[in-house]
Amino acid sequence: MARTSVVVMVLAAAVAALTGCRTVPISGRSQLMLSSEGYENSLGAETFGEYKQKYKASANQAHTQALKRVGEAIKGVAGQDSFAWEFTVLDSPEPNAFCLPGGKVAVYSGIFNYMSNDAELACVVAHEVAHALARHGGERMSWAQVQSLGLMGLLYGNQSETVAALYGLTTDVGVMLPFSRSNETEADAMGLILMARAGYNPQAALTFWQKFGTGGSQSALASWLSTHPGGEARIRDLQEAMPNAMKEYQSARNKKDYGVIYGASPPR
After folding, report:
1. Bridge-partner residues for 98, per DSSP?
2. Residue 131: partners with Cβ closer than 8 Å, 6 or more residues away
3. Contact at 8 Å (CB) between 200 and 118?
4. Where is 97: in which H helix or E strand?
5. In this predicted model, what pLDDT tens digit does every residue of 106-150 receive, in sequence order?
6. Taking the mean position of all CA atoms in its chain, how far away is CA 71?
7. Cβ–Cβ < 8 Å for 49, 62
8. DSSP H stretches of helix in the chain
9. Element (H, E) at 31
């Protein structure tokens, strides 16, 4: 055990020496970052190309124009001119969206079934852009490297496979999953600020997530093991973050409120 402790301490010291400390925009949180932004952006561009080969672009002009309007507005307040921004609607019934490192934003056509106006779309786009601005992907890769170093220390110290498996389980459940959930909560709060600065009413985030959420509370175990906060928890966190977002909205130069209204039914 003494030998294992020494090895783990040496590895921890090596990580500390190599660690880059970065401050997340908007939230101000200090984060571990071992990867470079250029590397992450190259991965984002490569992966985005693969998605565009897998899914065809939507032919729905209402969807495409809505994303263009909202995307340009969010891009304008993101403060990342170095990103090679792209905004694409992918033709898929799946209600999903993502933003890869470097500003590669995709919205699946299926998610428009839950949207009634541009502000609700802005909520989703801003949330995904917040992930890219915060470099959550790079942060997760960094912590995965630390986790791997810890496992290497255990194996080098001749610990049993059972101990190594237990280490993996406890770090996944005790560190990595809560860390992923905290990323989602941070992206929600940052997204509120971004959409507010772009002139969209942050209250639209509540109406969207109420429609899109689980519709009920999760069990304690399901919530614990989920990488995303549950519906009720997410709404509660958004409500807590709303006062700051509304201050930003009141200061916005070009208020759009809810923007273009899609009518009784979302655009299809």
Report:
1. 106
2. 98, 99, 137, 183, 187
3. yes
4. strand 97-100
5. 999 999 999 999 999 999 999 999 999 999 888 888 767 666 654
6. 16
7. no
8. 2-18, 37-54, 61-78, 118-134, 136-156, 161-171, 177-197, 203-212, 220-225, 231-251
9. strand 30-33
Q: Please, are residues 190 and 27 in contact by the beta-carbon 8 Å criterion?
A: yes
Residue type, 160: S
CB 126 within 8 A of CB 136: no
Give yes or no for a contact between 135 and 213, defined as CB atoms under 8 angstroms apart: no
Q: Are 77 and 197 in contact (CB under 8 A)?
A: yes
Torsion-angle region of 116 (φ positive above 0: left; ψ -120 to 50: alpha; else: beta):
alpha
CA distances from 249 to 58, 71, 120, 201 (A): 31, 17, 15, 7
Contact 231, 213 (CB under 8 A): yes
In angstroms, the CA 96 to CA 105 distance is 11
With CA atoms as reference, report the closest residue to 234 among 266, 188, 268. 188
pLDDT tens-place string over residues 160-193: 555 444 434 443 434 334 447 788 899 999 999 9
Side-chain half-sphere exposure of 74, counting CA atoms within 13 A: 37
How much is the pTM? Answer: 0.77
Question: Cβ distance 136 to 123 under 8 Å?
Answer: no
- Residue whose token pair is 């209204």: 261
- Copy the structure tokens of residue 84: 């090679």
Residues marked active site are found at: 128
Type of residue at 173: V
